Amino acid sequence: MTTTIAPSADVSDQAILGEGTKVWHLAQVREQANLGKNCIVGRGAYVGTGVQIGENTKIQNYALVYEPAKLGKGVFIGPAVVLTNDTYPRSVSPDGSLKSAHDWTPVGVTIEDGASIGARAVCVAPLTVGRWATVAAGAVVTKDVPAFALVAGVPARRLGWVGKAGEPLRQEGGFWVCPATGAKYIEDGNSLKESEENA
């Protein structure tokens, strides 16, 4: 599989694109960004300097992934999602002078393996979205999201749990069960873990 870059995309010569990765029209991938194999960067999307992206990750149209974000393997970033990087954003310093890149310290969003961020959601750094979690479309995430959690709203709150298939889990006899795969999960406080019965 070859890497594909649309003619109108702006991909830095210093970016690393894994085999089979596709970058579509008007997308921008900055210096030192490192994308794994078989990634997709949709139309008009932005991938910041030094952003790390695992294999099989999809960044949909017009999503903004600002440095120093880290995305695991198999992550889904929906259309127009924003991963921020400034805790106290200002255009100018208190004296009114224009801030430069050296006048603030960027903070990042980490999205762990298999997690999905729905369309137009905003993740306000610094935070981590746990593996296989789902952030609903339009949510504003301001704190860490546990693995397998389903969060929605402004600010985002946990509504339930999801499995690896992305479907909401059902509670059955002390387990949380995926209706699509039958996989079982065990709730432990504010987190979920896979049952040993799945092995």
SSE layout:
Elements: E1 4-5, E2 10-11, E3 16-17, E4 22-23, E5 28-29, E6 34-35, E7 40-41, E8 46-47, E9 52-53, E10 58-59, E11 64-65, E12 70-71, E13 76-77, E14 82-83, E15 109-111, E16 116-117, E17 122-123, E18 127-129, E19 134-135, E20 140-141, E21 149-152, E22 157-161, E23 170-172, E24 175-177, E25 184-188, E26 191-194
Parallel strand pairs: 1-4, 2-5, 3-6, 4-7, 5-8, 6-9, 7-10, 8-11, 9-12, 10-13, 11-14, 12-15, 13-16, 14-17, 15-18, 16-19, 17-20, 19-21
Antiparallel strand pairs: 21-22, 23-24, 24-25, 25-26
Provide a descriptive summary of the structure in words.
- 0% of the residues lie in helices and 33% in strands.
- The chain contains no helices and 26 strands.
Sheet with most strands: strand arrangement: 1-4-7-10-13-16-19-21-22
Shape: globular
Strand content: 25-35%
Q: Give the low-confidence spans.
A: none
Distance between the termini: 32 Å
**Tally of individual helices:** 0
Number of strands: 26
What is the radius of gyration computed over CA atoms, rounded to a whole number of angstroms?
Answer: 18 Å
Structural class: mainly beta
Order of helices and strands: EEEEEEEEEEEEEEEEEEEEEEEEEE
**Helix-residue proportion:** under 10%
Task: Report the sheet with the most strands, covering strand number, pairing sense and barrel closure.
Answer: 9 strands, mixed
Q: Can you give the mean pLDDT? A: 95
